[in-house]
Amino acid sequence: MLYRVLSGGVLLVLAGCQSGGENTSSSGTFKAPPVPQTELTDYLAMRCSDLLQMRTRETNIIENPLYWAAFISCARQTEPNTARVIASRWAESGWYNTLRTAIVLSRSLPENTVRQNYLNQVSLVHEQIPASVTPLFNMWWDNEQLALKLAEQQSQYALLKSNTDQELETLRQQQQLLHQQLETTTRKLENLTDIERQLSTRKAGGAYTPDTGAGHSGTTQSSGSASGQAGSGGEETP
Predict the structure, then answer these.
(1) How far apart (Å, rounded) are the C-alpha atoms in residues 183 and 186?
(2) Residue 103: what are its φ and ψ, rounded to 5°?
(3) Distance of alpha carbon 109 from alpha carbon 59, whole angstroms
(4) What DSSP designation does 41 have?
(5) Are 68 and 138 in contact (CB under 8 A)?
(6) Tens-place pLDDT, residues 160-189
(7) For residues 108 and 84, what is the distance between their CA atoms, to the nearest angstrom?
(8) What residues contact residue 63 under an 8 Å CB cut-off, 6+ apart?
């Protein structure tokens, strides 16, 4: 009896599903709900000249990460002078225009001050960037920060190299001056050595002749004295 009741209940449930199901045909085949036809724009297939000139603020575009991926790719293919011209077109406010300007300017070979300026502008609106674009934005932002640090290090290296070159030039001039002074002192020393050598040669080659005039005079005087004494003695002899 219980088996008959359960079987009847199952049949009633199945019958209700078949009669009330919207996605089930009369033959019992399941039909999938219709898929809405949505046209997706392939931004990567667009010409960069067209993509970079778009000034749209439509939500379905500016919140689409594929649009920004294509925009970054096109900006990297732009010549620096052209990038500066394109960046000047987005003067309107909005986080998307600020980001567009920064992305294009990053290709214009900016100086450190210019890069720091547009990064400061982006930092003011980064909280307005949609969550769908945030991962791509973070990658671009990190790359710009690394580029800024690299440029600063290159500037510091150039300044250090310039100072080092100046110091090396000063040392080279000082070395040249010392070398000239050394040559002058060496010549003077050689001249003094030659003079001393000549004086030593003259002293060694010259004969020493004593003065004998006083000796002859003394002998004459002695002889005269002796003669006088002899004469005196002769006068006293008777």
Answers:
(1) 5
(2) -65, -45
(3) 31
(4) P
(5) no
(6) 988 888 888 898 899 899 889 989 999 888
(7) 6
(8) 130, 132, 133
Q: What is the pLDDT of residues 137-165, one digit of tens each?
A: 999 999 999 999 998 898 889 889 888 88
What are the CA-CA distances from residue 182 to residues 71, 179, 187, 195, 196 (Å)? 68, 5, 9, 20, 21
Q: Are 102 and 119 in contact (CB under 8 A)?
A: yes
Tokens of 174: 């000082």
21: alpha, beta or left? (left if phi > 0; alpha if psi -120 to 50) = beta
| pTM, full prediction | 0.56
Residue among 18, 20, 90, 107 at smallest CA distance from 56: 90
**Residue 61 exposed, middle or buried by CB count within 10 Å (0-12, 13-18, 19+):** middle
Residue 201 corresponds to which tokens in the numbers above?
């040669």
What kind and span of H or E run contains 20?
helix 2-20
User: What residue segments make up the domains of the chain, in order of their start?
Assistant: 43-156
